[in-house]
Amino acid sequence: MPPPTTDLARRLASTESVLTEDARFGFDELQLAFRNRGMLLEALGYDITPTGMHFLLTHFDVPQIDAGKWRLDVGGLFAQKFALPLAELRKLPQKTLTVTMECAGNGRALLNPRPVGQPWINEAVSTARWTGVPLATLLRRAGLRPTASEIVFWGADSGIERGDEHTYARSLKVADAMREEVLLALDMNGAPLEPQHGAPLRLIVPGWYGMASVKWIRRIEAVERPFEGHQQAHNYHYRQTPDAPGVPVTHIRVRALIQPPGIADFVSRARVLDAGRVRLFGRAWSGAGVPVTHVDVAINGEWRPAELAVQVGGYAWRAWSCEWDAQPGEYQLSCRATDAHGEIQPLEQWWNRSGMGNNRVQKVAVLVR
Predict the structure, then answer these.
(1) 132, 261, 333, 348: which has the fewest C-beta neighbours closer than 10 Å?
(2) 184 burial class (0-12, 13-18, 19+ CB within 10 angstroms)?
């Protein structure tokens, strides 16, 4: 007879992303929220997010890697196959890029009905200065064969998701992988990568949501057919129903956030400030290297244009500001970005089953006294 099916076994084997109609969060979501951290929104004041404030999402466990024994294995459809130790990788020509990274699930907790998962509100975004070897440099050195269609990046972290046991891995089409701005990052904000950020080596794909920037890379493989790993073929798709093929999640959607003004209520995070002249400030960004061209700010639904600062990098966020003569009363503040392609943030979110790409406008409650 087969062994009895326990509740734990059923949960591990589940392929369903259960949706809840109410506002309560389950214990599993609470666990995820403690394991992963968002950027405090007051950190929008920094051009470069301090490393200790940069948002984190770890799917499984942070692997413990001995940097002295670690090797980057390069294999598959290459003319040359090799394994590079960390010291050799650091000798290759390097470049530094300032990149805004956002989790594809940012804003998931605001959807109704809510997809179960890491319950981000607005805080899963940060900007860092990444230094590393351009991926194209390594691919040219290995001699990519013409039959290769995709490059697969294998991490060192493994686990179970939706009943599927697998190693975290993602692929890029060859044309995307050969972009000069795609990095094999060794350093973050001028220091070697920390374990939680992918040490000793991670991928950085500027302009894409964070799932593409695979951490703890141990192998790069060129393949002929599309990669069908769990995180590529099953996860990270815009779907309305469980059986729909969906559309793959790729580039970051245009978005703006406000640095909350005044002081905060401890529990609700509602803001309190004194009447008078107030400078509202925030950041705006978009994906694929498309610049933000316009930010509007709403005060109780009345929109006004904000002033934009110089962008800190082609793939980085842009500061905006707006002066407000705040009179006593209760207000709701919002901001809305538009990019050079004419994409604009929605006032209400288009719903999808995994809670991906939620870029609806932020709402901040303020009491002026």
Answers:
(1) 348
(2) buried
What predicted TM-score, i.e. pTM, was given to this entire model? 0.94
Supply angle C-alpha 35, 104, 13, rounded to 5: 60
- Tokens encoding 307: 């002033």
Q: Which CATH class is domain 7-248?
A: alpha beta
- Distance of alpha carbon 41 from alpha carbon 55, whole angstroms: 11
Domain ranges of the chain: 7-248, 255-368
Query: Residue 152: which residues within 8 A CB-CB, separation 6 or more?
Result: 76, 169, 170, 171, 219, 220, 221, 222, 223, 227, 229
Q: For residue 283, give both structure tokens.
A: 């950041």
CATH number of the domain located at residue range(s) 255-368 in this protein: 2.60.40.650
Instruction: Provide the token pair at 346.
Output: 């929605």
CA 203 to the chain's CA centroid: 13
Which two tokens mark 301? 């639904």
pLDDT score recorded for residue 116? 87
> Residue 53 phi/psi, 5° resolution?
-110, -5
